Amino acid sequence: MSDASKSHTPFSKRPIKPNPLLESREVARNRRRELYLKHVQDRRDDKSWAARGDQILQLDYVSERKKWEAELAHSAPPPEEPPEEETDLPEYSSQGPIFMSQDPPQNYQSSCDDAREVDDIERQQQEDLEALLSLMETEEEQGQPRRQAQDSQRYDSDDEDYDSIFLGLMRDGEQKAEAMDTSNG
User: What is the 3-state secondary structure (H, E, C) of 3-36?
Assistant: First the structure.
């Protein structure tokens, strides 16, 4: 009961709100003005908080992304240390280049193999290009239209693709209808 008596205050001790109809014009105008300015300030604060909310979301995203990248980098195996390049370079003196050892370096052989492989690939590509050019020349001599030019014109856009497919289906349907008409008649 002591809790109920604390929450209940007698009517005579409650704060009294003045009657708005009995206020003077000046007091009423000031009250409305203050209320209007408070609403303007609240709207401005809401807009600034909305902008801050976007910034906060973006900062959260960036921080989460950095954490994820750090975890990813931490979980990745450590990179292999590159071989020291100093041992591969010759030492020069007044008498000319003197290699540190008489044997060629180990990675020298692999670089030669890589160079040969690159040369082989380049040679193969050159042969393929020459074969393609000769084929195109023979087609032009024989009067055959270039297939690539037709295909590139035919497949320029999705709308043209759709139109060509639709027209092809229409022609097929018409041909089947004509075939059925001639077979029945």
Answer: HHHHHCCCHHHCCCCCCHHHCCHHHHHHHHHHHH
SS3 91: strand
Q: pTM above 0.85?
A: no
Element (H, E) at 119: helix 106-142
| Spatial separation of the C-alpha atoms in residues 106 and 88, rounded to whole Å | 9
Evaluate whether 107 touches 83 at the Cβ level (below 8 Å).
yes
Q: Pull the structure tokens for residue 99.
A: 């290699």
Summarize pLDDT for 32-44 with one digit per residue, the tens: 999 999 999 999 9
Closest among 12, 16, 32 to 24, alpha carbons compared: 32
The answer to whether 91 and 99 are in contact (CB under 8 A) is yes
User: Which of 158, 139, 159, 141 lies closest to 149, judged by CA?
Assistant: 139
**pLDDT tens-place string over residues 41-84:** 999 999 888 888 888 888 899 999 999 998 888 887 766 766 56
